[in-house]
Specification:
This protein is mostly helical and 387 residues long. It is built from 18 helices and no strands.
């Protein structure tokens, strides 16, 4: 008799389990028939009952339901995030099996099939959030794509890294000002070679925002080594070395740049600036001149040549003022004015390129006064007063 009672109790327990799991089956059937309300009622009961709340199948159906609810109203992003959460729980519960550890992996195939249909919905939701400039949500959704693809159930499939969503996770994180996360994903995208030099430039933006000059230099150098033909990276690397006064490094990369693209006026101008800063004016003038041969309306070398001659003229005039001998003074003064006069045509050309640049206008005003060009002086004076 005692044995019969135990068997009866065991039967009741099994019946209870199947009763609750039957609600999951019912929810799935309602879902297949488009009755979301009844599917929700049944799955909620199963999620609360101890006999079914730890069953992998419960979470598969819950995830499917959340997905269908989201498709009915895509403004409710919490629903697709709920689906993501339920798929993670389904995979986790399936790996554990039952309370005795049996049946692990039983629903692996079903989860994979469900995720095959779910993934495009999740990806599109992330893209829509990104395009709507809801970058924190886009980041959450893109990261979900990456993490779902790394579930243990895909281990044997050896899925390739999802470089697209790794890159856009970094971009969304950057625009959300979550720089640590952005750096992680963009560095990974760079390792994968996705989007060429764009990941390098985005990382540079992050290091600029965080004022991390050490990582900025390392990133640009690495980027140049990986993409030596990308002029954007090379230009940024050169500018970085110029700004941080690492002149030897800047010159090295400028020479590489010019050998690669000898018709690029910007490179000659940049090297001219480098020589200018080092007070090697002869070489600076040669490079500025080459830049103007390639681009005759290039403002920076026009201005820089004008400044070199103007400053040289000022130094010569100061030296002349210290000469006591009148004859030697007049000769030195004449030589200084000849140097000043070399500045004039470059400043005039620079003024035509940028008519409202006040530095150029003030310099021209001084030069016109020096050479007694009063009509031009008065015109420039009026322009300055009108600004």
């Amino acid at each position: 008799m005692k044995r019969l009672v135990l068997l009866f109790v065991s039967f009741l327990a099994i019946s209870a389990v199947y009763a609750q799991r039957g609600k999951v089956a019912a929810a799935s059937a309602f879902l297949d028939n488009g009755d979301l309300a009844m599917a929700k009622e049944k799955i909620n009961e199963a999620l609360e009952h101890p006999k079914s709340k730890d069953w992998a199948k419960t979470y598969i159906v819950a995830a499917r339901l959340a997905t269908e609810e989201y498709k009915a109203d895509k403004s409710k992003s919490d629903l697709i995030l709920s689906a993501v959460s339920n798929y993670f729980k389904a995979a986790e519960r399936d790996q554990l099996g039952d309370e005795k550890g049996k049946g692990a992996g039983r629903f692996e195939k079903e989860i994979k099939v469900a995720l095959t249909f779910f993934m495009p919905e999740l990806q599109n939701a992330g893209i829509e959030a990104f395009n709507a400039e809801d970058y924190p949500l886009a980041l959450n959704l893109f990261e979900s794509v990456i993490k779902l693809n790394k579930l243990p159930l895909y281990e044997e499939d050896k899925l390739p890294a999802d470089s697209v969503f790794i890159y856009y996770s970094g971009l969304a994180a950057s625009r959300s000002e979550k720089y640590d996360i952005a750096e992680k994903y963009l560095s990974e995208a760079l390792d994968l070679g996705y989007e060429g030099g764009d990941a390098v430039l985005l990382l540079n933006e992050i290091y600029t925002a965080t004022k991390d000059t050490v990582k900025m230099g390392e990133n640009l150098k690495r980027g140049f080594e990986k993409y030596p033909q990308d002029d954007r990276i090379l230009t940024m690397l050169i500018n970085f070395y110029l700004q941080t006064e690492q002149n030897a490094e800047a010159l090295e990369y400028l020479n590489k740049a010019i050998s690669t693209d000898p018709e690029n006026a910007s490179y000659y101008n940049a090297r001219g600036v480098l020589y200018d800063m080092s007070k090697d004016y002869e070489k600076a003038l040669l490079d500025y001149g080459k830049a103007l041969e390639l681009k005759d309306d290039f403002f920076e070398p026009l201005l820089n040549i004008g400044v070199i001659y103007y400053n040289q003229g000022a130094e010569e005039m100061n030296a002349a003022n210290d000469i006591q001998d009148n004859k030697k003074y007049e000769a030195a003064k004449k030589a200084a004015n000849e140097t000043f006069r070399k500045s004039l045509p470059y400043m005039e050309r620079a003024h035509k390129v940028k008519p409202e640049d006040t530095m150029v206008m003030e310099t021209l005003k001084n030069l016109y006064y020096r050479f007694d060009m009063m009509d031009q002086y008065n015109e420039m004076d009026s322009k300055l007063k009108a600004l």
